[in-house]
Amino acid sequence: MLLLIAIIIFFGSGRGEEYLKKQKNHTFVVGGLFCPYEHSEVINSSWIYGEPFERCKDFHIAFFLSSAAARFAVEEINSSSNLSTEIIYVERQYCSSPVASAERMLNLTNSANPKVIVVGATSENFIRIGHLSSLYNIPTIAAYSTSDTFFKQKKDYRTTFRTIPSDRHQIKALVELSSYFDWKWIGIVAVDDDYGQNGLRGIVEEARYRNICVAFHVYIQTNRYNYSENVERFFKIMNHTNNIEVVYFYTSSVINLHEFFSIADELRIRPCVWIASEGWADRAAEFYKYNVVASIIGVDVKNHRIHRLLRYKSVCDAVERNNSTLSSHDFQEWLCKEILKLNESCDLCSQKYVNELSNFDINEWLEPKMDYVTYTTYLAIQAIARALQDVESCTKNISILEDGCPKINELYPWQLMGYLQNANFTDNNGSFYQFTENCDVRPSYIYRNTHINNEGETEDVTVGFYKTNSSGEPIFYINGTAIRWNRTGGKVPKGRCSPDCPPGGRTRYAGGQTCCFICLRCPPKTKSTKINSSECVDCSHETYSNDANTQCLPKVPDIFDYNSNTAVALSVLCIFGSTASVASGLMFYWKRDTPLGFM
Fold first, then answer.
1. DSSP-assigned states of every residue in 519-575
2. pLDDT of residue 428
3. Distances from the Cα of 250 to the Cα of 72, 105, 106, 190, angstroms
């Protein structure tokens, strides 16, 4: 009896609850592939001094924090009592290149044998990972690979899931802006990789479907040896295009955007409105210092902040917990620069800096650095946890698999596919998610615009949203009055190749584009009643056109009053003329035998 009471007291206490949480019946290996860098370069590509190798460049804090979010999300799940399986998380980091991503994928699968993999990779780098995961039948959840290729070529990416919307939705959200503001004349530029190529083609197709003319569409190659020449070539094309006021820029961080816009200012390109894809919309405020930027409207993935996701005890703890990663040195160097404003490396775990930063809240400071990739990574881990819960609660009556309920410790990777497809999962804010039949999530975008105050400070403002309902129908809203049109006189750009041809005129196309034309006035006895009418319509015989050639008016007959002076005068003239004619005829008849003589 005393033993029973002791057990009840123990498990009713906090220590008892903690004990229960730590009791895990099985383990389940989850792999992580993350690239915390924007670029890479190949060293010794000439093969003269030995084998070539890749060196990572341009440390990206948001990408780094997304990998940290995966680790903390696993800790959060393991510490809860909802799952009796312990998740073992094994991560590999790599430089930003398709070759490096493939190498790390092979290393991870061969060394850790993961049952599912969470991938933080751009679309360009994910292509190889997606192919390899399909080869090994390993479910792979892409946290920020948005390319529509994975949807169109599903047989090649049959094990790929995504916690970020596909580009096909983003393209509709982008072109929706042109429809709303009635822009009929746009330009498009995109990075020359899988992400940019799919985006550019999609915008061109969607624009043509909506009768929007594309003035030009140009790819920018990322080759560092001729990058400047490619950018200059694009801006020369743009400069020779008449009346271009709106340019869609579909790119990611692989392009040096500061160099891009500085070249435009050197060439004195006229300011225009830039429509930013999600690949750089969150950085828009950085580029308002360039004259070529009149305004930027960006489409970005809606970011649900996950407060207190990071749980570092101190700055030193943040460094030590990432010591085993590829980017550990670059992370500490970044912290030295951003926190201590040092231009050199420092040891943040030395006693000097531990004391100096003892009251510094590293988690609160890092939280604003997290963007949507952190959130979509967190969702990927939550989806896996939910699928494992469904496996644990499986019964013969509700089993997804034909051969019954699998055991966690004997689970094959392919068996998890059906459970992921049916998983209903939520974030810690209570938002609900489920994978669609295409293995991605429903879109939820926001429109961002940067406001500049009198002190020159910038602030990103949400000015609208784009999402779909459960039936897939789009829901669009934009607050046009909240958008700042800098360097355009505060007015919305017209977005026209030619001025509108008013009623009373007709268009004659010039240059092969239906949006480019000259306006000709309708000839007499014809009309046109619509703006930009392509032809003038003839008036009927009973009508005539007005002076403006905008309508046909009925003809009115001239009627004289019988008692009017004009009628009397005309009657007298008619009678006199008739009498004179009769008299002349009678005279000729009376003198018909008299010869005619001429003097």
1. EEEPPTTEE--STT-S--EEPPTTEEE-TTSS-EEE-------TTSHHHHHHHHHHH
2. 65
3. 32, 28, 31, 5
Return the exposure string of 172-182: e unless at least 16 CB atoms fall within 10 Å of the residue's CB, then b.
bbbbbbbbebe
Question: For position 134, what pLDDT does the model report?
Answer: 92
- Dist. CA 562–CA 122, nearest whole Å: 92
Q: Tokens for 17?
A: 């609850």
Q: Across the strands, what pairs with 448?
A: 298, 462
R_g (Cα) of the chain, nearest Å: 37
What is the phi/psi pair of residue 550, to 5°? Answer: -105, -10
Query: Which of 189, 204, 34 minimizes the C-alpha distance to 105?
Result: 34
Q: Distance (Å, rounded) from C-alpha 240 to C-alpha 301? A: 34
Mean pLDDT of 349-367: 87
Q: Which of 503, 487, 476 is nearest to 181 (CA)?
A: 476
Q: What is each CA distance from 35 to 73, 91, 280, 425, in whole angstroms?
A: 18, 11, 17, 26
Residue 180: strand, helix, or coil = helix
- Residue 472 identity (one-letter amino acid): G
pLDDT digits (tens, 9 = 90+) for 172-184: 999 999 999 999 9
Condensed to tens digits (0 to 9), the pLDDT of residues 406-420 reads 888 888 999 899 889
| CA distance linking residue 86 with residue 81, whole number of Å | 10
The Cα 388–Cα 86 span in angstroms is: 10
The letter for the amino acid at 167 is: D
Sign of CA dihedral 364, 366, 371, 372: negative
Residue 421: pLDDT above 80? yes
Structure tokens at 482: 């909240």
**CB-CB contact of 157 with 119 (8 Å):** no
Q: Six-digit token pair at 60?
A: 């990206």
- Rounded distance, CA 190 to CA 254, Å? 11
- Nearest-angstrom CA–CA distance, 372 and 304: 7
Residue-range domains of the chain with CATH: 25-162+371-441 (3.40.50.2300), 167-301+442-482 (3.40.50.2300), 323-369 (no CATH), 501-583 (no CATH)
Band of the pLDDT at 7, cuts 50, 70, 90? very low
Query: By C-alpha distance, which of 291, 290, 273 is closest to 493?
Result: 273
Look at phi and psi of residue 137 and say left if phi exceeds 0, alpha if psi is from -120 to 50, else beta.
left
Q: Alpha carbon 186 to chain centroid distance?
A: 16
Are 120 and 67 in contact, with CB atoms under 8 Å apart? Answer: yes
- Structure tokens given for 53: 């190798």
Q: Is 64 helix (H, G, I), strand (E, B) or coil?
A: helix
pLDDT of 236 strictly over 50: yes
Least Cα distance to 133 among 153, 152, 110, 158 occurs for 158
Q: For residue 122, give the nearest of 303, 255, 321 by alpha carbon.
A: 255
How many C-beta atoms surround the C-beta of residue 215 within 10 A?
Answer: 21
DSSP code of residue 373: H
Structure token digits, residue 391: 């496996």
